[in-house]
Specification:
Elements lengths: L1 H18 L6 H12 L10 H31 L15 H24 L13 H8 L5 H28 L8 H27 L5
Helix pairs in contact: 1-3, 1-6, 1-7, 4-6, 6-7
């Protein structure tokens, strides 16, 4: 779970950086989208590398969810009788409580996101528009509810990241009394930067700062 989580964190960071190119204008954003689809040309056909990366990402997501279910079942089997006294801990904090349900909501969001900007099924302009035009149309002020839905999903991703990165550091044996404060700060910083980076784009479009 920690390893697949690390793969997903790296994907989110690179995806966020790509999204931020929208602030450099339509040409920069469209060039980036075109570059993604032509990676490896002419050695390999159009979109081959991107398709392989997407397939690997799907595998990582499926393995991550499978690991979560397996660990939950193992924990339940290891302790079939509940504790008589409940003790609050970091693992029972807000982020931990949202991991399970937030993960389900994030999964639904990923499906919608793919239908919107990869397969163009739910995008207002469809597949004939440029990537920049589709993004602008998606978060048009008249579609404010899409922006709200996006922001809520990203906030859940942030909570998921904060708790997940910290847990992964413990799982991988990186936590020590000396590194604990650093790792807590690192997990919070990464979660905050990724959240702000993803939220900045739809909010800027909805408020007319990018058009």
């Amino acid at each position: 779970m920690a390893v697949t989580g690390a793969v997903l964190v790296l994907f989110l960071i690179t995806h966020m950086i790509g999204n931020l190119k929208i602030f450099f204008g339509a040409e920069s954003f469209n060039d980036y989208a075109h570059w993604l689809r032509t990676l490896g040309e002419p050695a390999v056909p159009y979109r081959t590398v991107l398709t392989l990366l997407e397939a690997g990402l799907v595998v990582a997501i499926v393995l991550h969810m499978w690991s979560a279910v397996s660990l939950a079942r193992r924990a339940s089997a290891a302790r079939p009788v509940k504790y008589q006294a409940k003790k609050k801990s970091h693992a029972q904090g807000y982020a931990a409580r949202t991991m399970r349900y937030g993960g389900v909501i994030i999964a639904f969001y990923v499906v919608w996101h793919l239908l919107d900007l990869t397969f163009f099924v739910v995008n207002p302009l469809g597949g004939d528009a440029t990537p920049y035009q589709r993004m602008i149309a998606d978060f048009d002020p008249s579609r404010w509810y899409i922006t709200v839905w996006y922001v809520v999903a990203v906030l859940l991703v942030g909570a998921h990241l904060h708790h997940g990165i910290w847990s992964a550091c413990q799982t991988l044996g990186l936590r020590t009394p000396r590194t604990e404060r650093l790792l807590r700060g690192l997990s919070g910083t990464i979660a905050a930067v990724v959240t702000l980076g993803f939220v900045a784009v739809p909010v800027s479009i909805t408020f007319g700062w990018v058009s």
